[in-house]
Amino acid sequence: MDYNFSERLKCLKPSAIREILKSLDVPGVISFAAGNPAEKAFPSAEIAKISAKIFEETPIKALQYNITEGYFPLRAEVEKRQKKLHGIGRNFDATIIVSGGQQGLELAARAFCDTDDVILCENPSFIGALNAFRSVGAKVTGVRVEDDGIDVAELEQKLRTTPRVKLIYLIPTFQNPTGVTTSLEKRKKILELAGKYGVVIIEDNPYGELRFAGEYIPPIKSFDDEGRVIYVSSFSKILSPGLRVGTVTAHADIIPKMVVAKQGEDVHTNIFSQLVCHRFMTECDIDGHIARLRALYGEKCALMSECLRKEIPESAAAFKIPQGGLFIWGTLKNFPDEARLIKEATARRIAIVPGSAFMCDPERNATGTASFRLNYSTPSEEDLIAGCARLGEAIRALE
Amino acid sequence: MDYNFSERLKCLKPSAIREILKSLDVPGVISFAAGNPAEKAFPSAEIAKISAKIFEETPIKALQYNITEGYFPLRAEVEKRQKKLHGIGRNFDATIIVSGGQQGLELAARAFCDTDDVILCENPSFIGALNAFRSVGAKVTGVRVEDDGIDVAELEQKLRTTPRVKLIYLIPTFQNPTGVTTSLEKRKKILELAGKYGVVIIEDNPYGELRFAGEYIPPIKSFDDEGRVIYVSSFSKILSPGLRVGTVTAHADIIPKMVVAKQGEDVHTNIFSQLVCHRFMTECDIDGHIARLRALYGEKCALMSECLRKEIPESAAAFKIPQGGLFIWGTLKNFPDEARLIKEATARRIAIVPGSAFMCDPERNATGTASFRLNYSTPSEEDLIAGCARLGEAIRALE
Q1: Do A253 and A377 belong together in one domain?
Q2: Of A244, A245, A326, which to mutate for an interface test with B (greatest number of B Cβ within 10 Å)?
Q3: From the candidates A3, A40, A225, A326, which should be mutated to test the interface with B, based on the most B CB atoms within 10 A?
Q4: End position of a domain, from candidates B283, B300, B319
Q5: Do A66 and B36 touch (CB under 8 A)?
Q6: Which of A44, A131, A227 is opposite residue B263, by nearest beta carbon?
Q7: What is the pLDDT of residue A321?
Q8: What are B179-188's pLDDT values in tens digits?
Q9: Interface predicted TM-score (ipTM) of this complex, two decimals
């Protein structure tokens, strides 16, 4: 039969990355397409121990309904850690637990945006956020990303000239997909502009703790003295994405709006996972664990960088090497034909995500370049080496 | 600062029940307000064993990202069981895992409704569904519930005269909050009317397996030969609500719309919980477990019924005693003043949910009666006895 679907969802397509993930089971494919933590990154033994203790000591708590805001001791622990690491958390702020950072982004958009309201985003940006924003009926408008973060002149121009801008969405640290980190100066300037034009910032920081080079830069939220920043973080990249636990810290006037929307979405985040996160924070060495992750990803990034240098001539492509996070961003120099690159790569069984997937307006890739995102956290060392060789072949085949 | 929130969420209030749940920690309060499974209902020992096995045998699978549609072996097992129990599942159907039945309801509304589209609902109905529908901008319009289900004459009249009806939302078996089960004849008539007026049905069946009296009636979905019914079920009431695992079975043309909305909400349902549900279905005696739940809730329902008969004269209130599920619905006969009843009950530290909380239009309680929902699954036997005595006192105080 014919279904009369909502206009809001009619235009939405499934995430290119999620679709690529489904094809990963094809034998022989090496994937640089995912954003998954390395298998070695999971503290499986600790989680197994914690899990056993939870079911021994508090089985009912792990299985019964809980409140929408999330497990209180976990929220308190997250606030303590955010204060210590980043100076985040004023008296007016509150923290809730969400089902992955993804839900935090979507709830923030639902709290502020009606159909055709605008969210200014880094261009390119995280496809999961762009799709979530689109799915609530908001329009995403892109602002160019430079090597030190968003182009603040273009940001101000768009704030001045675009009607109905409600939110600015940013991943200031180790941005997905470009790996770029926004400078301290730009962070302060962006907050100032948001104030000047009366909009709220969503600061998404899933990778912030995964720094393996360069100097720490505090989140925008740490300068937020008036409640203008919704800070979204996550346990996905530091503990486990399968648990689906993220956090939102924002002004206590904003939080109830997000909570009421969350009630309708999933009542509360699964409580067993919240108990795991809480015990991991209080009973295990979370700092030591994250230090190991930093070392692991630093090595993997270095290995991929080295292989790319070896396999791909500087004249053919440029790569942004990040100071943390999970991604290297590549741009073709002489043959900017994205479709052909993906075809040649696929023929060589190397999966990469085309840059256009991350564009606010994928149909109109204004830059006229062909870019692509490479993930180094998921593949094994052997696959990093072999995959870069395949990518090199694919790029040489463009000539 | 002043925030410019979305119109869609501005009007939404937090669920009265969720808010009541928060106050449950007050010492001395007996709550008939929740919808929680009994503590005795959790197969904690089995889940502890399963959990240990998961972290021993497949730790990475339990912690890594998974696909939005859900863990394939669980989907297959759910389909097999639904086929066996209910004859649900045609060739055109597909099944996905969602983060509790709640998410299934919300995704169905998002797939079909734009702002001001209408969802016809039983009146009263499940407050979590009503709020989810409102939060996506849909209007909920109520149809009276009779002792054998929705008033089908009123349903047809509203289908004929209401513009923009997209969906009918029903809990045909052990309805929340009334406990009413829709008769076989009405189920078939409702499906026929949905076809005649070109609307889709959301059939919500969280309590279906909890029958302790009367005869089995197949779900509407089991008669659905054209893909008109979205069937939502859940592990919350048969295994654990804290795990947040529900299922949706619908035509394969509908499912991708819900999947794309789910990607934006939480990427996927937490995978550890999905593995628990799968192992519970395949490695434990799920039928034996559910048989024990049926006996447990049958006894608790009988105890509450007996206490209500003893404590509250027939002249003062009428009660609908259900054949399954978790709730008894009460209606005051002589002093239909809801606000006073809640005040008197609260003064005696007995928590109940006022009937107006479940109304499609809470401001205009057209029936002019005062009703309330009583839950017998959560309280202990002692609390059932003491709570009914307190409720009796509260009702006598109205005179």
Answers
A1: no
A2: A244
A3: A3
A4: B283
A5: no
A6: A131
A7: 97
A8: 999 999 999 9
A9: 0.95
Instruction: Using CA coordinates, name the residue in chain B closest to A92.
Output: B1
For residue A117, give every residue at least 6 positions away whose Cβ sits within 8 Å of its Cβ, in sequence order, or none.
A137, A138, A139, A164, A165, A166, B6
Number of domains in chain A: 2
The tens digit of pLDDT for each residue in A4-17 reads 999 888 777 766 66
pLDDT at B344 (0 to 100) = 93
Mind listing the pLDDT tens digit for each residue in A147-193? 999 999 999 999 999 999 999 999 999 999 999 999 999 999 999 99
Co-location of B185 and B116 in the same domain: yes
**Residue A183 belongs to a domain with what CATH number?**
3.40.640.10
Q: Which domain holds residue A225?
A: 64-283
Tell whether A51 is covered by a domain: no
B268 and B227 belong to one structural domain:
yes
Residue A141 touches partner B, C-beta closer than 8 Å? no
- Report the range of poorest mean pLDDT among A6-20, A307-321, B114-128: A6-20
Where residue A204 falls among pLDDT bands split at 50, 70, 90?
Answer: very high
Q: Determine the Cα–Cα distance for residues A114 and A213; give it in Å rounded to an integer.
A: 40
Are residue A209 and residue A294 in the same domain, yes or no? no
Beta strands per DSSP E along chain A: 30-31, 93-98, 118-123, 139-146, 149-150, 165-170, 200-204, 229-234, 246-251, 317-320, 327-332, 350-351, 353-354, 371-375
Q: Which residues contact A171 (CB under 8 A, 6 or more apart)?
A: A122, A125, A126, A203, A204, A205, A206, A207
